[in-house]
């Protein structure tokens, strides 16, 4: 080991760096601690907690509008605002997607992607950092498919998506090759590929001890397979964002070159000089590199390409007919939800078993098509559980951007026939989140939505003599010493 780095790592992976940049990187690895950063949720910007967070902000992340550095790392798990989806804890370098979108917007010359209706896939999405940033950059009429191939990682992804509050998402659990069923469906695909993790050396001793040239080569081949498998799901003229948290040529520029050979053209940054002034480095092969010592963040590489080929294969007619039948069946089921439709006019309501789900009418067909073709973990908005005549609001409804609009937007207000709201303090919020017993004195009876600093964190049913906690058991704070 040299400077706590694997032997041969500097020459193998960072030999392309200018000497001055290499010196600054080594110094950062020896002396500089990892910065702490969060990214706010603009869908919940009107919450009081946005102005009164439970931590001290140090300054902004230059390449992410909603990203901020913190003075020190708090215990996020004990912050109710974190559980309410007001912010996401993410390394600053990983917040590069705003710059990638800027490059695409410049190439298209049509203004903001947030004003367009597009289909986006985050292929390797768990635990959800980049998916939640994508949701903040996209308009609500666009659809995101957040996929994770490893089944054991999908629950964390689904929970983080639920906290963020978006309803224009389908969370799936599929291999890259499975997306061929959809044909050239997506306008943008993000492949944040599994890699050797060189950019995480400052945070992870496992990444350091597990590094070897052989592992780098294995990762590069796996990345190439993933890119090859997903390429057919990208529409002609669509964009692929490729990223890793590593530095070496095999996993980065060599795979970018291979992508170009598939029928793609490179897409450069919207304002390269601005990026360079912020410390982001251009790589020899045309990518962009975030490097500790040059930026206040960990290691991250990304590149954007555009699919130029005009050949397009589509799902078979039989598949299309089956998907249409499924959608027709779902709409028929939705007819039983008329009692609630006037209160959720933006949604097509569908009853799955006893659970009422909402799909935005503008994209319901597309979301149900994806759900019919892929192994789906969750989709749309979980509104409530219907038991007889009882409407039991679901935890995800409290966390939703829809509910944030009802609480703080211009068209505020949801009929109180479903539930009322009650403001609570931090101690009560933590008892709720850990599912510890608590009482709500002077609160109305029935279903209540709990607000901490204006941020909804969940539902209870107040019976007067006791409170039934509707916070999902799987999401509870397990360390009761924090309460």
From TrEMBL:
The reply to whether Ribosomal protein figures as a keyword in the UniProt entry is no
User: What SUPFAM superfamilies does the database record attribute to this sequence?
Assistant: S-adenosyl-L-methionine-dependent methyltransferases
Q: What UniProt keywords apply to this chain's record, in alphabetical order?
A: Cytoplasm, Methyltransferase, RNA-binding, S-adenosyl-L-methionine, Transferase
CDD domains the UniProt entry points to: AdoMet_MTases
Concerning PROSITE patterns, the annotation shows: SAM_MT_RSMB_NOP (PS51686)
Gene3D superfamilies hit by this protein = 2.30.130.60, Sun protein, domain 3, Vaccinia Virus protein VP39
Any idea which positions bind S-adenosyl-L-methionine? Answer: 148, 175, 192
Question: Which residues are named in the active-site annotation?
Answer: 245
Ranges for domain SAM-dependent MTase RsmB/NOP-type come to 1-308
GO molecular function terms here?
Answer: RNA binding; RNA methyltransferase activity
State any GO BP term from the record: RNA methylation
Q: Which family does it belong to?
A: Belongs to the class I-like SAM-binding methyltransferase superfamily. RsmB/NOP family.
User: Would you tell me the protein name for this molecule?
Assistant: rRNA cytosine-C5-methyltransferase
UniProt lineage:
Bacteria, Pseudomonadati, Bacteroidota, Bacteroidia, Bacteroidales
């Amino acid at each position: 080991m040299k400077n706590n780095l694997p032997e041969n790592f500097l020459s193998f992976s960072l030999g392309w760096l200018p000497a001055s940049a290499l010196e600054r990187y080594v110094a950062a690895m020896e002396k500089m601690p990892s910065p702490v950063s969060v990214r706010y949720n603009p869908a919940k910007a009107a919450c009081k907690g946005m102005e009164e967070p439970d931590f001290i902000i140090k300054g902004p992340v230059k390449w992410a509008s909603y990203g901020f550095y913190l003075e020190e790392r708090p215990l996020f798990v004990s912050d109710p605002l974190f559980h309410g989806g007001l912010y996401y804890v993410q390394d600053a370098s990983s917040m590069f997607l705003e710059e990638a979108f800027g490059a695409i917007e410049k190439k298209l010359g049509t203004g903001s992607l947030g004003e367009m209706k597009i289909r986006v896939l985050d292929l390797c999405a768990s635990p959800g950092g980049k998916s939640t940033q994508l949701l903040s950059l996209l308009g609500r009429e666009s659809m995101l498919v957040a996929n994770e191939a490893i089944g054991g990682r999908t629950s964390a992804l689904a929970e983080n998506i639920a906290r963020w509050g978006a309803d224009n998402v389908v969370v799936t659990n599929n291999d890259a090759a499975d997306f061929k069923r959809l044909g050239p469906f997506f306008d943008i695909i993000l492949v944040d590929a599994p890699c050797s993790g060189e950019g995480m050396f400052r945070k992870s001793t496992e990444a350091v001890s597990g590094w070897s040239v052989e592992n780098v080569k294995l990762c590069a081949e796996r990345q190439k397979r993933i890119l090859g498998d997903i390429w057919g799901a990208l529409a002609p003229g669509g964009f692929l964002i490729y990223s890793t948290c590593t530095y070496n040529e095999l996993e980065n520029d060599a795979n970018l070159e291979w992508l170009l050979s598939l029928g793609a053209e490179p897409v450069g940054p919207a304002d390269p000089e601005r990026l360079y002034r912020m410390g982001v480095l251009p790589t020899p092969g045309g990518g962009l590199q975030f490097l500790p010592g040059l930026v206040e963040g960990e290691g991250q590489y990304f590149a954007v390409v555009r699919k130029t080929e005009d050949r397009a294969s589509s799902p078979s007619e039989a598949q299309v007919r089956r998907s249409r039948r499924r959608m027709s069946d779902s709409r028929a089921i939705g007819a039983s939800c008329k009692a609630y439709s006037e209160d959720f006019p933006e949604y097509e309501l569908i009853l799955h078993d006893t659970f009422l789900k909402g799909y935005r009418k503008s994209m319901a067909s597309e979301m149900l098509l994806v759900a019919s073709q892929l192994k789906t973990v969750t989709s749309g908005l979980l509104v409530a559980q219907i038991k007889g005549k009882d409407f039991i609001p679901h935890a995800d409804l409290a966390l939703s951007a829809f509910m944030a609009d009802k609480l703080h937007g211009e068209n505020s207000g949801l009929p109180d026939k479903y539930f009322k709201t009650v403001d609570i303090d931090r101690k009560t919020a933590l008892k709720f989140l850990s599912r510890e017993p608590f009482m709500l004195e002077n609160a109305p009876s029935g279903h209540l939505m709990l607000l901490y600093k204006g941020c909804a964190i969940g539902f209870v049913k107040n019976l007067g003599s006791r409170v039934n906690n509707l916070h999902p058991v799987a999401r509870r704070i397990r360390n009761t010493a924090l309460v």
